[in-house]
Amino acid sequence: MSNSDILINIVRFVLLVFLQVLLLNNVNLAGYINPHIYILFIVLYPLDGNKGLLIFLSFLLGLSIDIFEDSGGVHAAACAFIAYIRPVVLKYSFGVSYEYNSIKIKKADPMERLTYIASLVFIHHLIMFSLEIFSFKHILLLLKSTLFSGLFTIIVIVCTMIIFNKKTS
What we know:
- The protein has seven helices and no strands.
- With 169 residues, it is mostly helical.
- Helix 1 packs parallel to helix 3 (51-69).
- The chain crosses the membrane at residues 6-25, 37-61, 73-94, 114-134, 146-164.
C-alpha cells in the first residue's frame, strides 16, 4: 500500500465514523431500518492491503461505533468477522479475477460488485442483529431487521460509490 492509499483510508475511516454517528444513527425508518454506511471502509479496503491490519482496523471501526452508540461490542464483532471472511466473499463474488489480483472493485462488473457488497452487508447485519437481539423468541424481528436494514444499507452504499466514482470520469 502506498502513502496515498494510507491517507485515503485514514480519511475514509474518520469520515465514515462521523457520518454514521452524527447523521445516520439518527435515521430510523419504521422503527428498525437504519443504514450502516461505515461498512464501506471494509468494502473498499485495498485488495493488496495487509489482511491482519484490515481485521484490526475493522475491529477499531466497529468499536468506535459501539462507543458512540453504547452497544456493547456488537458492531466490533460484526466488523471483525466480515473483515476475516472478506477473502472468501471476494473469491466467490469475483471468481478467477480475484485470484489473479486483476480486479478493481469500483470498476468491476455491476452484478459481481453487488454480490460482493450484498454478501458483506447481510453477513454483517445478521451477526450484529443476532448479538443485539440474542433470543430465538424474536427470530422474526432479527430476520426483518437484517433484511430491511441490509437492503437500505446496500442502496446507500451503492449510491455513495456511484456518486464518488463519477469524479474519475
